[in-house]
Amino acid sequence: MSYFGKYWKIGGLIAGPISGGGVGSNGSYSILFERANGATLEGIEAIDWASPAIRRLPACPANEAGLPEGYGFQLGNIEYHHSTGHFEVTVATAKQYLGDVTGYQARIEELEGQAEALSGQVSEARTKEAELASAYEEGVESNG
Q1: 81 vs 2 pLDDT, higher one
Q2: Beta bridge partners of 32
Q3: Band of pLDDT at residue 47, cut at 50, 70 and 90
Q4: Contact 88, 32 (CB under 8 A)
Q5: What angle do CA 116, 121, 123 make, to 5 degrees?
Q6: What is the pTM of this model?
Q7: pLDDT tens digit string along 10-30?
Q8: Based on CB atoms within 10 Å of each CB, which residue in 57, 60, 84, 86 is the most buried?
Q9: Residue 80: CB partners within 8 Å, gap ≥ 6?
Q10: 10 Å Cβ neighbour count for 87?
Q11: Cβ(38)–Cβ(48) below 8 Å
Q12: Residue 39's pLDDT is what?
């Protein structure tokens, strides 16, 4: 029997409500995992907290904020509550990660190449401008 509900899937484990993250909590969150939903101490410790896979489940209320996106976490404390069969896990934000940025990197390289080509064209145009100015001056001087 589940006491808290199935709100999130974190690293393959079903989790209930996530609280914290408000003013004064300094990036600290409390997550409830229930044994009835398959949570074990080993399973919680095995989650890749540095870059966790997090998915909101359909039963999760709309006002449930969850964990902030794009962050890794440091596992704090794990408390087991026998009377309700749940683990209360505390995590703190550790490092922000950007995910897969290869598409952005390719676009940056493409734009840098375009900028380099434009720089070459500007340089060539300045050379031609100087040649034209020189030819104009020579023509003016020879025709008086």
Answers
A1: 81
A2: 88
A3: very high
A4: yes
A5: 95
A6: 0.65
A7: 999 999 999 986 655 668 999
A8: 86
A9: 41, 86, 87
A10: 20
A11: no
A12: 97
